[in-house]
User: Which sequence fits this backbone?
């Protein structure tokens, strides 16, 4: 039996998925604006990796 989500106002928001989609979009924009391939450092900057590490470490 296949279950299908009901049609109507029962939308569920997956905040993690939405954040990932936003980051993917930012990567696509950065890659399309770059003249060459993005370096790992550039990718980390777009994804705000250092920022997230500081928050995770409590160093905000």
Assistant:
């Amino acid at each position: 039996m296949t279950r299908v989500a009901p049609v109507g106002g029962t939308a569920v928001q997956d905040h993690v998925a939405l954040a990932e989609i936003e980051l993917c979009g930012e990567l696509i924009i950065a890659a399309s604006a770059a003249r060459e391939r993005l370096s790992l450092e550039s990718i980390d900057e777009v994804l705000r990796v250092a920022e997230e590490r500081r928050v995770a470490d409590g160093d905000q």
